[in-house]
Amino acid sequence: MPQKSPENQNAKQVPDYKITQPEMDFDDQTPEAEKENPCPDCGVKKGERHLNGCDIERCPKCGHQLITCDCEVQHSERLPWSGAW
Ligand SMILES: [Zn+2]
Ligand SMILES: [Zn+2]
Predict the structure, then answer these.
(1) Which of 7, 23, 47, 66 is 20 to 30 A from 17 in CA distance terms?
(2) pLDDT value of position 36
(3) CA of 76 to the centre of ligand 1 (A)
(4) Is the CB of residue 42 less than 8 Å from the CB of residue 51?
(5) Beta-bridge mates of residue 58
(6) Would you say residue 42 has pLDDT above 60?
(7) Which of 55, 37, 56 is nearest to 47 (CA)?
(8) Strand partners for 49
């Protein structure tokens, strides 16, 4: 029986060309979500007012936690999330 496809056809060297793949650049960049830096408690974005009962929110009058102080704070006086605490 005739051997139609010899197994050693690949014996000769193939050119060692490199497959150039676009390199995935994993720069250590902060993801967008982290840049926004939402409040760790109520989750509002930086610059927005905290939700009611957030224990990160500071009292604009005494500087303590708003939920634990006794100051009367109008809604319009309440501090927005500053991105740091
Ligand atoms: Zn909050
Ligand atoms: Zn207070």
Answers:
(1) 7
(2) 76
(3) 16
(4) yes
(5) 65
(6) yes
(7) 37
(8) 80
Q: How many CA atoms lie within 13 A of 2 on its CB side?
A: 1
Beta strand segments in the chain, E: none
Q: Closest Cα partner for 79 from 34, 64, 4, 25? A: 64
How far apart CA 73 and CA 50 sit, in angstroms, is: 13
What confidence tier does 48 reach under pLDDT thresholds 50, 70, 90? very high
Ligand nearest to the CA of 69: 2
**Cα 37 to middle of ligand 1, angstroms:** 11
Give CA angle at 13 (8, 18), nearest 5°: 130
Position 27 confidence tier, pLDDT thresholds 50, 70, 90? low
65: which strand partners? 58
- Please tell me whether the overall predicted TM-score, pTM, comes out greater than 0.70 for this model: no
